[in-house]
Here is the input.
Amino acid sequence: MQGLIYDYHCHTTVSDGALSPTELVELAAHHGVQSLAITDHDTVAAYPEAQIAAKNTGIELISGVELSVLWGRNELHLVGLGMDLAHQEFTDLIAEQQSARTKRARKMGERLDKATGLTGAYEAAVALANSEAPGRPHFAQYLVAQKQVRDMEHAFNRFLKAGRSGYVSTPWVSLEDAVGIIKRAGGVAVIAHPVRYRLTRMKLRRLLSEFCTYGGQGLEMALPRLAPAQEDMLYDCFQELPLVASGGSDFHSPQQQWLTLGKVPALREGTPFIRSLLDPLVH
Ligand code: AMP
Ligand code: MN
Ligand code: MN
Ligand code: MN
Here is the structure.
């Protein structure tokens, strides 16, 4: 497994990415990626097209998703890898999350209309996303185009992050239920980008140990731009628990010039890697 070029976290146009599933798989192949999972937010709609592109380019494709979940009052991201995409309980979960996203987006649109004095934020975000369930980046794009903010970052800070006028809290699936469903669908649940939640070391430990009791197995460890102190903290927590390491770029767009598909730091010697637990869709 050593030397395998992989990326188990990236996005396409079916959620908030800039590339179509075919373009993404082709770019991954161009960068030498050998094993790929696409992890769109609360959807697996990239897969029918991605499977064809994977066959054509000879890349190994693993099923994937990035679910928005609740752990207590914390909104976290949970990656699922290697599920049977036709598993009933899993497809039901995706449908529920999509419906929650649609309702959230409608409310977000209303709140942004009120906050900006403009009209039609929801409709504009739907057009940008080409979906009834646009995400916050689509609303951010709209706010930039309307000159309400300077850039995406400003849109999140001013309107979209928790506590701001456009933020809508959403009844996502619980971490415990999501882990159970991923497992029963034959997949492996992975805590995504653990350093992005601003958890103290103690709270991260508690999260990971509860996650393991639910049947969770994976932790993203190979992450771009991890500070040395963060990496030390992750390895400390990782070693105390029966976890396997995953990782990926969280690529959204070629405009993120500091990111490349398949470019993640190597895992430390002897770190158990997730790949052997995953059953590919395309070999
Ligand atoms: P959503 O899933 O609709 O809640 O949107 C979350 C997505 O917004 C993340 O997956 C990122 O792609 C993007 N995002 C989050 N924070 C920021 C930020 N500060 N600037 C730009 N994009 C962000
Ligand atoms: Mn995203
Ligand atoms: Mn995420
Ligand atoms: Mn992501």
Remarks:
- The chain has nine helices and nine strands.
- The pocket of adenosine monophosphate (ligand 1) is lined by residues 16, 41, 68, 135-137, 152-153, 156, 252 (CB under 6 Å).
